[in-house]
Design a protein that fits this description.
Largest sheet: none
Oligomer: single chain
Number of helices: 4
Distance between the termini: 39 Å
Number of strands: 0
Order of helices and strands: HHHH
Structural class: mainly alpha
């Protein structure tokens, strides 16, 4: 029965493969987006740009708030992952 199912689903293989690749890409993008080390580097670049006069205080505050929210979400996901045995699927 398993072989028959595979033969019947063979025309859908490219679609299933594409869906799998897209799932992997999304998972990696989320992992990088919520990686605390990446967020810390972005915060350091943000502070350097502000101190160099490349942006005003309002822009700095807006971007800093976004980065801190990402960092908080990453920490929350980490705590949930520790309780569940892994990082989980993200916030």
């Amino acid at each position: 029965m398993g072989l028959l199912k595979e033969v019947l689903l063979l025309p859908a293989a490219p679609i299933r493969g594409t869906a799998w690749v897209l799932e992997q890409v999304v998972a990696e993008a989320e992992r990088q987006y919520y990686d605390p080390a990446v967020i810390h580097r972005e915060l350091a670049r943000l502070v350097a740009a502000y101190e160099a006069g490349e942006m005003d205080a309002a822009e700095f505050d807006r971007r800093e708030d976004d980065l801190l929210a990402r960092l908080e979400n990453a920490a929350r996901a980490g705590r949930a992952g520790q309780a569940g045995g892994g990082w989980g699927a993200g916030p």
